[in-house]
């Protein structure tokens, strides 16, 4: 059911509170779609990565094949006879991203600024490394890059995101970064006019520099606004909120649902994970009734989004076989 819901999208974010099962659901979703023939890129943006642990092999900052036609791919949907798909995984390394990002900026600055400005520029960058937004904007850049990578060589990009608050800040950032860039561009416009005015006095070099800065800013602006366009297009992007049917995860799900909707992001499905069985003793049956209560509350607040139950599974969710079993659950019919 979840798999069917998402077949038409090419970008899926999986979010929710820490520990509720985001990574497991994201991986199973990726595997399920690969079983239906899709080429899937699975990207972890959570600084506490565990894709590698889950797939039993080291996953790094570059895409790596996690499952292909030779592996046990679950058949999702009936009679999908096309070529087998695959899952590539990548864990965004924020430190490495910031390093790469800042050294690119440093390079540009050295090229564009006069010699005497090099030392102050280096000090400025050193401060930028510690600044609060740097980390996030670097990760956002990588998310944009992964979406672009998806356009080139994948049918679907699944993001296993950091716990929800962090992800929301990231999704809100394109707006902020865009307007920030606009401001800079507006300043550039003024200085370019200034540059025009002094060109007659031999300021041609400066005008060339302005044009290059402008190009760099524009490139960044168009990258973030492209990302925002993709993320807020329900035909292309869906957000899956994973929760356990308990007080705090349900409260947070309602809050995140409201914020995502306000940002224009489509919440495609809710997954109530690790549901207690009703027929395995009184303790679990009572838990089950308590969970039902929480889910009814969730339903009153979010009535229209499909809600899928995933039972508490007995074994460790590690390795392709276990993920394939979970993927099978994601293909089943919705909870009542
Ligand atoms: N349906 C389930 N049944 C049993 N264990 C589960 C289920 N879903 C997830 N888990 C286990 O719960 C733990 C947390 O899951 P994980 O996917 O890492 O959560 P998150 O990425 O949200 O922190 C893992 O040990 C995982 O194997
Ligand atoms: Mg995780």
Automatic annotation (TrEMBL):
Gene3D superfamilies: P-loop containing nucleotide triphosphate hydrolases
Start and end residues of each AAA+ ATPase domain: 8-299
InterPro entries (UniProt xref): AAA+_ATPase, ArsA/GET3_ATPase-like, ATPase_ArsA/GET3, P-loop_NTPase
Pfam families (alphabetical): ArsA_ATPase (PF02374)
One function term, GO molecular function aspect: ATP hydrolysis activity
Alphabetized SMART domains for the sequence: AAA (SM00382)
Signal peptide residue numbers: none
Matches recorded under PANTHER family: ARSENICAL PUMP-DRIVING ATPASE ARSENITE-TRANSLOCATING ATPASE, ATPASE GET3
Family statement: Belongs to the arsA ATPase family.
UniProt protein name: Arsenite-transporting ATPase
Organism from which the protein derives: Streptomyces aidingensis
